[in-house]
Every structure is written in C-alpha cells, then in structure tokens.
C-alpha cells in the first residue's frame, strides 16, 4: 500500500524559510513523478513543483520559481521542498503526491502539512 507522509510544516514570519519532507513507501518509485501541491483556504489545489524520480528533472509554478527548491533522496525514499523568502500568500496546506510517468493524473496523495506565513 502506497503511503506518502509529509512533515515540516509550521508557522514562520515573512521572509523566513521552511523545509517540507515527504516520505514515500509501499512501492518502487523509480518510474514516478513526485509533486508538491498546495491549497489555500477557500481556493482550489494548485501545483507547486514536481520532480521525476529517475532523472531528477524538475518544474515549478511561476509563483515559487527562484524561491522554492524540490529535491529527492533516493536512499531515504524522501522528497523535499525547501521554501525560502516565504510570503503570506504562500500560506496553505501543502500536499505531496505521486503519479506513474505513464499516467496523466496523480494517483497517490499525502494528508497535507500546514504552512502559515505571518506578515
């Protein structure tokens, strides 16, 4: 059974940093794309970043490019989202997700981690 477990959320002042972690288990993820999404209160879920587990290629939403970095640790089956220069508008629940590279939709989701950025 696939499990994605996020950690590392919290409260931080604007301009600060946080690092989210997502531990993946239950299968081999070498042919998966791992993503981070976020959902602010009253809004829909939005793409933040993704990384391909096999080659490490990445992509980012325009709103976080240059401030956030997604990475992976193969040995720990963990992906990270390093968030720098945080803004109040980054406040949201952040979700880790996984999809097979042959699929068009993310199949697996974590329960989410709250990130709150105060002004």
Q: What do these coordinates show?
A:
This protein has 119 residues and is mainly β. 0% of the residues lie in helices and 55% in strands. It is built from no helices and 11 strands. The chain has strands spanning 3-7, 10-13, 18-25, 32-39, 45-52, 58-60, 68-73, 78-83, 92-100, 108-109, 113-118. Strands 2, 4, 5, 6, 9, 10 and 11 form a 7-stranded mixed sheet that branches. Strands 1-3-8-7 form a 4-stranded antiparallel sheet, with no helix packed on it. The radius of gyration is 13 Å and the shape is globular. The N and C termini lie far apart (40 Å).
The major β-sheet equals: 7 strands, mixed
Amount of beta strand: over 45%
- Counted by DSSP, the helix tally is 0
What is the residue-averaged pLDDT?
A: 96
What's the order of the H and E elements?
Answer: EEEEEEEEEEE
Topology of this protein?
Elements: E1 3-7, E2 10-13, E3 18-25, E4 32-39, E5 45-52, E6 58-60, E7 68-73, E8 78-83, E9 92-100, E10 108-109, E11 113-118
Parallel strand pairs: 2-11
Antiparallel strand pairs: 1-3, 3-8, 4-5, 4-9, 5-6, 7-8, 9-10, 9-11
């Amino acid at each position: 059974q696939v499990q994605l477990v996020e950690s590392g959320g919290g409260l931080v002042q604007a301009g600060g940093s946080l690092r989210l972690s997502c531990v993946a288990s239950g299968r081999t993820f070498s042919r998966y794309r791992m993503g981070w999404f976020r959902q602010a209160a009253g809004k829909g879920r939005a793409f933040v970043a993704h990384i391909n587990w096999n080659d490490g290629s990445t992509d980012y939403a325009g709103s976080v490019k240059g401030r956030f970095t997604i990475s992976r640790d193969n040995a720990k089956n963990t992906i990270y989202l390093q968030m720098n220069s945080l803004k109040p508008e980054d406040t949201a629940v952040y979700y880790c997700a996984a999809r097979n590279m042959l699929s068009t939709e993310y199949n697996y989701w974590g329960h989410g981690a709250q990130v709150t950025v105060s002004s």
